[in-house]
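Recap for those who missed Tuesday's class. We walked through two folding examples back to back. For each one, the amino acid string is listed first and its predicted structure tokens come directly after. Nothing is annotated here on purpose, so try labeling regions yourself before you check the end of the notes.
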Amino acid sequence: MTGAVLLALLPIVILTALGLTLRRRRFLTESFWPQAERLGYFVLLPSLFFHSLATARVEAVPVGALALTLILSTLVVAALVVALRPVMRIDGPAFTSVFQGSVRFNNYVGVTLAAGLFGAQGIALAAICNAAIVPTVNVLCVLVFARHGAARLTPRGIVRQLATNPLIVSSLAGLAFRLLGWGLPPGLEPALRTLGAASLPIGLLCVGAALEFEGARAWLRPVVSASAMKFLAMPAATLLVASLLGLHGPALTTALLFQVLPTASSAYILARQLGGDAPLMAGITAVQTVLALVAMPLVLIGLSAFVPMG
């Protein structure tokens, strides 16, 4: 497990560092990165999820147990963060950033790791993880913004955001496609596979380009709080729920992987749009991306000594 995790992390480190270097050296124009993120989010990653689920053998995947493990563990940690709010001594906008840093995750890193460890099965498992966690996290974060930030979203607005989320729609569509026994047309299948393959390198380059460490220096306590929730409380809650539901093997490994992923750069955009503390969010994202390179293998290697996950 140790060697497999480290090998799966290697391309993530290389591509993330390359993205950071390209952005700092201004090799590409500044306008390139937002457009690349948009392309990945709305076209490339949905293609990957739809293709992987439409062609996967989901009959062998514990879809219900995996989804329930992720949802329940996320709710447990979210409740813990809210309960600890009074002792954090930070204002409302800053709390929204700590909350996002505790529960939000980076899709690109998770899919790359799952694919590196389990191949096509890993991509299918990752797509199921996204279908379960994305709506859960988005609902929770929007509710927290409505309470502690400057957001004024109505219930209809929340439903609209979820119903039009390309990652949720593509995952559910691919799963339905496979369960109905429909096959992809010969010309469409390789096109979707190629688009999906492009999502991972482009996404990881964008992850590196979005790293900003300036906010972390001024907000040490909130950064530490969010990271402790992400890398300690979240995997512990996931393992507890998984043991109760009997989740094991590659599904358990993938669930743990996704629950120790660093916060996505999209959290910064959400903080800026909904009245959160955007500089703090940028700092949390940058620090967690670096910490995850150590935390992810440590969590999996440590837990593999007690639980058979491979």
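Example two. Treat it independently of the first, because the proteins are unrelated.
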Amino acid sequence: MTSHQSPSSSRTAGRTPPSRSTGGRAGKADRTPFRCTECGFNAAKWLGRCPECQAWGTLAETAAGPAPLRRLTPAMVTTPAVPIAEVPAGAVRARPSGLTELDRVLGGGLVPGGVVLLAGEPGVGKSTLLLSAAHAWAAGGQGRVLIVSGEESAAQIRMRADRMQSLHPELYLAAESDLGAVLGQIEAVRPALVVLDSVQTIASGEIEGSAGGVAQVRAVAAALTAAAKEHHFACVLIGHVTKDGAIAGPRVLEHLVDVVLQFEGDRHSSLRLIRGVKNRFGPSDEVGCFQMVADGIVGLADPSGVFLSGRRDPVPGTCATVAMQGRRPLPVEIQALVADAGGEHGRRTASGLDAARMTMVMAVLQRWGGVALANREVLAATVGGVRVTEPGVDLALAMALWSSARDIALPPGLVVLGELGLSAEVRPPPALSRRLVEARRLGFDHAIVPAGGEAGTAPQGLRVDRVTDLGQAFRSLGNDDGVVHWLQQRR
């Protein structure tokens, strides 16, 4: 007697049913991974765009590798551990570069074996700054300097050096774009300082991908960092930035280096600022000031005159303050203009100031101060193109907006400091005493500051009015605006 099978059972006859552990799918060990040729990211399936480096069409199929070892046996140590007090520290002591403003940000100078990443927008003056620093280093007897350029030829750098009068027998130039050739130049020259312009233009033939890719940038930075540690020379890498202002390349680039500097400046202005973002050898919040001149770049030890207009007669809409750029107090003049709008809605424009803080200050003035800003053009800017984003300039911005809206000029010699709250209270900014000392040094004789905080002795010759809210700030000027009435009623 023959047995009858259903159609479904006949179709599955002779097939091995899937195991319950895999649910009919291949296990992770049997899968063929896909690896990104730019950054090395592994994916279980093919993707059009790499999730790590955001590159298109870089995932390639590779054979599955062996499973990693779960346990590692101890190996022989290369250098035995010693007590921290017995570690010699003289070999990594900072050596001045010759540029005072650059040394201020670096924490005293360049450290042998240390790697510095200098990032900035194209045309801001990174190559000019480092050529000037390299000449100052060689002229100061600090040792031989090697400048390796992957963007310019040696003749082009020589032309810039002639214009800057930066020729020196201990200054060497090389135009290379291969990592092996760069390391060969370092072995041949034996420099004390290496400048690489730039890290995105150097590539290694042993790494897949083009120059500037994630894998190439990471390999170049790692190789130069290892060489700097081994041969004890200072290394400065020039890096590109994206359109958003962030450092181009993988984030691991900032972790590999010891110091990260940001070079900022507007190409329509001669002022340049170099900010410390990361520093293993010193403070990471310092700021250096430079000025572009016809034959190069020079440091500004006292940039106070750059950020003040120098106007003798006061005009409505201007107020002076002292902002902290790193650990340096810098005087800044804030200018505001409140005018009738040409259309239905007024624009709000901020240049050099935080737009969100400006909107908050305007709301406080309109709500509590009785200053009508609706349907009006409101513009605010800083003199000299400096960017100030700290809350310690809120009160000065409020005074400038009020002065322009009321068409009342603030008295000459006045400096205003303080952070403004949403309920019109005023809070003290950090380093208040240092700001007051700097204001007095520049000739200011009247200061409006918040009460509390650093209640130290005011500098001689400076009249200091300590206020708790915006109403007292107006009252100290002899004005009685709407905010004063509101504050009195609230009490």
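Answers for example two:
The chain has three domains: 33-60, 97-301, 305-490.
The mean pLDDT is 85.
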